[in-house]
Specification:
Recoverin, domain 1, two-stranded antiparallel ribbon, mainly alpha, 2 strands, 6% strand
Length: 107
Amino acid sequence: MRKPLIWLIPALTLSAVPALAEMPAPPKTPAEKAAMRARIDAEVDAQFRKTDTNKDGAISRAEFTTVSPKKAAYFDLADMNRDGSLSREELSAVVSVLFEQWVAKNG
């Protein structure tokens, strides 16, 4: 069974974070990095669609806290334009920063 890669966005994870022992090795080549990032993006897209329960193309604070109540404080960190909702672009920007930091630290 494929382990979810959502662990790379701990501040925004919308599902359970796997144990550290389940974390994959960081990518060693540009191709591995691109492949891992594509998998992460696909998973984030799926989680975004699942969390956007009213299907308006944004995740409201209520939708976010319903799915991830223990991480509600992170909503404001991701809501970069402070409009009270998370767009797919805002989520992607946060994922990009966290992914690059993780690769730099562990690569």
